[in-house]
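Q: What would this complex look like in 3D?
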Amino acid sequence: MQRNEVSVMDPVITVERLSKQYKIGLADHSTTLREALSSVIGLSFLRRSAAEDTIWALRDVSFSVERAETVGIIGRNGAGKSTLLKILSQITYPTSGTTKVDGRVATLLEVGTGFHPELTGRENIYLNGSILGMRKKEVDRKLDAIIEFSGVERFLDTPIKRYSTGMRLRLGFAVAAHLDPDILIVDEVLAVGDAAFQKKCLNAMESLRAGSRTVLFVSHNLAAVENLCKRCIWIDAGQVRMDGESRSVIQAYLGNMTGGPAATTELQNLEQRRGNGKMVYRSVQFLSAEGHPQEVIRSGDPVVMRFHYSATEPIAHPSFGFRMYTDMGSLVTDTSTWHHGISIPILEQGDGYVDLEISCLNLMPAKYSLSLWLTDMTGALVYDNLEHGVILEVEAGNIYQSGRELDSRFGLVFFPQKWNLSGARTQGAQVLNDLPGVGESLIR
Amino acid sequence: MRSLSFKELWRYRELLYFFAWREVKVRYRQAAFGVAWAVIQPLLAMIIFTLLFGRLARVPSDGIPYPIFCYSALVPWTYFSVVLAQGSNSLINNEALLTKVYFPRVLLPAGTVLAGVVDLVIGSLLLVALMLYYRVQPSWALLLCPVVVLGFMLVTLGLSMLLAAANVKYRDVKHAVPFLLQIWMFATPIIYPVSMIPERFRSILALNPCWGMVSAFRACVFPQLPFDFQLIGPSLGVGVLLFLGGAYYFYRAEKSFADLI
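A: Here is my prediction, written as structure tokens for the whole assembly.
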């Protein structure tokens, strides 16, 4: 809970016993005059929902951040991360507790906040800059740099309703990257955009850190969090679960996601899932090629992943898939029946399973987590989605048949491969036969 | 945690300008007639009212030609009604801003109030043209018009703050405002002169802040009309109260905007 650092030199953010309560259970977020009037008059029968449930989005959160610190904030969806950032940036107010923020704050909860579709790119730079707290003079001065960063020079005098999503993002981030705040609060902006754009964002954040500004950074990209932040705070169910050095916090966080390795992972009781539930994953099994449960999975083994599902009604054109991540949150692969062009016109009601057969698991030894999803062909309709629901622990295997122990230091994956020394002038060199299926030399 | 801070408002003054600028820029984008709409709207209203009330119903107009008599009130009234309709929605229409970034929330209704001035000025140019056409000899009182307009802005801002804040919690406001404005228009001496109302009712009607403002605006334009301070005084008083009440309610409700919207 507590950070065991003695020297508190210069806190720019101090949060003390912060709690935030939300009312839930109302059909829509807005109340109506009728409800207010009836509660004043006391006509309870006029009221639609008497039961007013409340939830604590944050409960007794305390921490402080020093000047020029970059702190990552991680946690599951709904853990209270965004609420915390919103309170720190004064968008919403705590139910109890205090925050003290010392310096000019810029909040980036989304890219391009306040963009108006009818205004041109240039006009939106000024508007967005002003909304984010830049002075007009400042925008004037930085305009050329912003335009260059955005890469949309040619469309600067076009209304941005004609822009593509990518162009809008680039323009929005170009403005944000030129903010000059004392404290920057960033939420999940990196979750959007393509890889190149994400890289650009990360670079911009790096330079902010170099400029000794204080940064609070919420992201699901754990690799980015670890890369950028020395310190990390893990928020779980509205409370600070752990606060300390990033690497250990992230590992504890991922370790908490599931119980641990086993041949079968039961999924039915997992709460953290999204989707309409018409079809869900029941469990995932790791089997050997012969179909026996496999407790230990080693690099290079053949593996069958068996996904047990349950459908409450006939499902048209479902797609089974999963994403695999490293324990630092980097995506290893994203695969599905859709990727393979498999068409399932109708999946009947009831239980069943699909197998993914891997003839050679070419992963280096490490802990991987799997996020499973069940959608329709377009991916728009989500039946079930489990973030980091399954852990796959890969043990060291004799992958090159050399007996050498190869672990995660040697990379993430290995490929079916073979060294050919026929072109080298060697004396008595021996090449062992390597991998299953790669017996013959390709080059003659 | 936070109180009304004038220092902060001053620091954000540029954003107020940008919000107003955004509204002005966007209002007539992609409209073939463009800014001309600022004139067309009150002009059409004037023509319709002149035909209906001036010609058909023969409503008196204190000896002033009915079209300009009507139009002189329509200029401030159009400002008031258009801005109030937009201002009361200024928070709910900017949900993305309210939930994503901090700035003094009052800048949203205030930006609308400020943006409306552009239309008001354009509408006033036509008024000047009509004054020339109807040979209205203005007195020095004409120079007081901006003061009356400032009073109008104050009332409009106060009401906009009140309704915009209430609108966040009770969307009923959105539906009620157009209706309210319709009734309000007929309760304000726009199509009829103050002199048509029996003396004993005037003190009640003077509680309508628009009543005093419109009368004062007309008195600035037409030298033959008196500044009736028995009307303007109470109106102004109610206006100031509305402003203070609106501001008080707004700042009290402000904290929950992002949660309720």
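A: To summarize the key features: The domain at 11-104+181-256 of chain A is CATH 3.40.50.300 (Rossmann fold). The first strand of chain A starts at residue 11 and ends at 24.
Q: Very helpful, thank you.
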